[in-house]
Amino acid sequence: HELRRRFTTHASEVGKIHVSGNLPVIATFEQLGTAFAVSPFFEASQSLHRKIIDSGALDSHEAFQLLLTLLQALDAIHQTRLHHDIRPTNVLHEPGRICLIDPGAAREWEADRTESHSQQFLTEIAATEVLKPNSHRGPSSDLFALCATVFASVLPEVSRKEEEATPFELMEADRPDLPTGLKLAIDRGLQVSMRD
To answer: Are 80 and 13 in contact (CB under 8 A)?
Structure first.
């Protein structure tokens, strides 16, 4: 019962944030032992994960828009002392719209607080520290996950943890079309420590 209550509370809080990149939540409710969050239906949309599978890597404009839009959403979400589960399957992507979905996955954070998390993380997207059972999570882990998501969207065929090269070096070699500033932003975001 506590998990359902937290889901609806966090979904409601995140859903009240009116900023580009954040999914509005119309209502939350519990029914038959399950918690639900109701949001608008976007007919032509798909997850970022599905877009990459269907269409391949994002171009430089799409990658920049993804990074900028989700940074703005995270800034607003972090001001409420919540953080979000960011990964390609939790990003809605359609022409003219990018937003974080699964607002019930948002969690409260406090500096220097450890917490046991029941949520599963993609090992390529989550910061190493987040994969530990009692981990510190907050804005820095969200920034890391956002940059890992953008990195995965521009180089979907590369496994970051299996390579000797830095993310910047990989993008320099395989994606010369990406602006240097974008590559540097992604690379630096992937170097963020949970203690930063």
So the answer is: yes
φ/ψ region of 80 (left if φ > 0, alpha if ψ in -120 to 50, else beta) reads alpha
SS3 174: helix
Distance CA 77, CA 82 (A): 6
Q: How far apart are the first and last CA of the chain?
A: 34
Q: Could you tell me the two tokens for 187? A: 């690379």
Give the pLDDT of residue 130. Answer: 46
E strand or H helix at 11: helix 2-15
| Burial label, 96 (beta-carbon count in 10 A; 0-12, 13-18, 19+) | exposed
For the record, the structure tokens of 74 come out as: 């995270």
Structure confidence at residue 118 (pLDDT):
35
Q: How many angstroms separate the CA atoms of 107 and 72, rounded?
A: 18
175, 183 contact by CB (below 8 A)? yes
Q: What are the pLDDT digits (tens) for 67-102?
A: 999 999 888 888 877 767 788 988 988 888 898 887
Cα torsion 89, 66, 187, 165: sign: positive
On whether the CB atoms of residues 14 and 103 are closer than 8 A, the answer is yes
- Give the whole-angstrom CA distance, residue 196 versus residue 191: 10
